[in-house]
Amino acid sequence: MTVSVRNLTKRYGRTLAVNDVSFDVAPGKVTGFLGPNGAGKSTTLRSIVGLDFPTTGEARIDGSKYIELKAPLHEVGTLLDAKAAHRSRRAVDHLRWIAATHGIRRSRIDEVMDIAGLTSVAKKKVGGFSLGMGQRLGIAAALLGDPGTLILDEPVNGLDPDGVTWIRELLRGFAAEGRTVFLSSHLLGELSLIAEHIVVIGQGKIIADAPLDQLVQTSSVVRVRTPDVARLAALVAGPGIMTTTAAPDHLEIEGLPVEQIAQIAAREQVVVYGIGQVTRTLEDAYNDLTRGAVQYAPQDAESANHV
Ligand SMILES: Nc1ncnc2c1ncn2[C@@H]1O[C@H](COP(=O)(O)OP(=O)(O)OP(=O)(O)O)[C@@H](O)[C@H]1O
């Protein structure tokens, strides 16, 4: 199932929350949705699943608008607010209530509770759940109809390390079956372990839509760990080559391939403890992309130290 967003614009009064956004979410992989606070992620996700009506433009799931789907739970599983469950209801009753809307069999409720690790708290009231347990319940609900697509807003939030590993494996497995996964998250390190494709939104506009590999592609900088930084810097010096001492025993070299640097070091008998290309993290890529698109930031570096 492909999720297609076309020229989606959403205004709330004077606020232009989403501004002419178009992108596709492909099946068979996990797609991450990133952006600063207030960038328009939740509005976009809510518009995809018919909880918000676009001012103009549209979102379709395999060609249909969400509201046109005959049995939406079997097509799209959603988690948009982990606190949405009724506080006085028991976890199992929350799932029974949702299952009843689609005639989903009772045994499926046990299955999803088991998948989400909630079997032992099935009869506990949701009001007593932690954020992480609420997330697990929300994911169990999203899985109830065994859908082809999952749309999740911040599903990793509040999960403990076991929970983070669990959801990573769950979502990757889901995508490996050819299904579609679209999730937002501010946890960039975790997202780079889950997602293969990344869409970045800033101030209501799409500012990147690319495979993760492409965003974090290896830079041309080589970092060498050596006790002889000054000597190696002098040996590799030449036109178009930049060297930076990154730490007392770390030299960064731009403009020469790693093999050539290793050969120079070997030939000149410079001791090397480690050598390799510097890789950009998703966080580096995100910071570069969203510079200028952050709405809610401290006024200056000085105030940043005081928040
Ligand atoms: N129901 C609403 N009424 C008025 N303004 C809204 C409403 N929902 C969102 N907005 C505004 O639209 C903009 C986008 O909000 P949205 O919640 O989509 O951002 P987000 O990227 O999900 O942010 P966060 O990372 O903080 O969750 C913000 O300026 C927000 O204040």
Automatic annotation (TrEMBL):
Sequence similarity: Belongs to the ABC transporter superfamily.
Record Gene3D superfamilies: P-loop containing nucleotide triphosphate hydrolases (3.40.50.300)
Domain ABC transporter: 3-228
Stored Pfam families: ABC_tran
This protein's name: ABC-2 type transport system ATP-binding protein
Domain of life: Bacteria
An example molecular function term from Gene Ontology annotations: ATP binding
Keywords of the record: ATP-binding, Nucleotide-binding, Transport
